[in-house]
Amino acid sequence: MKLDKSRENISSMFDDIAGRYDFLNHFFTANLDKRWRKGIVKYIRSNNIKCDMLVDLASGTGDMAIELLNLTPLKIYALDISPKMLDMLKKKCDDDRIIIEVAESENMPLESSSVDIVTIGFGIRNFSNLNKSLDEIYRILRPDGLLIVLEMFNLEKRNILFEFYFTKIMPVLGKLISRSNTAYSYLHNSVMNFKTVNQFIDLASNHGFIHEYHKNNFQKFVYSVFLRKL
Ligand SMILES: C[S@@+](CC[C@H](N)C(=O)[O-])C[C@H]1O[C@@H](n2cnc3c(N)ncnc32)[C@H](O)[C@@H]1O
């Protein structure tokens, strides 16, 4: 199935579900998403990685950006193409270290080599131009800077339980609660059309990132991937 990942389509889809996104996110992951984000912060802290200047790309309602505040950074840029998702972040948190801007992964309002860490939580799968986005992330990161991707990757092997949950349960409940006809069937298709974790790591290496570590958060499906700019 061909997915429409144009900026217009993706931003309007997330604008439509913005008010119910957090509830659905926590509901469908049984709150594990919170633990996965905390795990990223723990990794950064325990490895003593410099974190003055951070970017949470595809920040949405900002749960990752808010979690990153625990690292006491100087600034966190929360960037997203959906103004309504970002409005939810504004309502949740008014810490002036978080700078909220509508911006796309392919063209970020930041200087080259100015960022210590870029995080992307459940966003990269939706990027319309993944190659261009990886180049742009590479540009803004400082040498040795870290790209951290929390994502649902395509499965290496078929998993009947996963397919049942994603094709039968999630679209029905997602439609009922989010009142969007498309968002939660898009979710399944976007995962099935995305790369496996190893394919993603290979692709990132073609864009100058070296694989540092990846963690299987859930069922060899949800991973945190840590990549370093060469
Ligand atoms: C599933 S939400 C994730 C939100 C948040 N990061 C989280 O962890 O819950 C995906 C977000 O990616 C944003 N997005 C999709 N493509 C994007 C792009 N090319 N550049 C910036 N944001 C994008 C969407 O607008 C949406 O808010």
Which helices and strands appear, and what pairs or packs with what?
Elements: H1 7-28, H2 32-46, E1 53-57, H3 63-68, E2 75-80, H4 83-92, E3 98-102, E4 115-121, H5 130-140, E5 141-152, H6 160-178, H7 183-192, H8 197-206, E6 209-218, E7 222-229
Parallel strand pairs: 1-2, 1-4, 2-3, 4-5
Antiparallel strand pairs: 5-7, 6-7
This protein binds S-adenosylmethionine (SAM).
S-adenosylmethionine binds near residues 57 and 123.
CATH superfamily: Vaccinia Virus protein VP39
Bound molecules: S-adenosylmethionine
Class by alpha and beta content: alpha/beta
Provide the helix percentage. 40-55%
**Biggest sheet architecture:** 7 strands, mixed
| Spatial extent as radius of gyration | 17 Å
- Following the backbone from N to C, one meets helices and strands in this order, namely HHEHEHEEHEHHHEE
Low-confidence stretches: none
Reading off the top of the CATH hierarchy, the class is best stated as Alpha Beta
- The CATH architecture: 3-Layer(aba) Sandwich
The count of DSSP E runs of length 2 or more, i.e. the number of strands, is 7
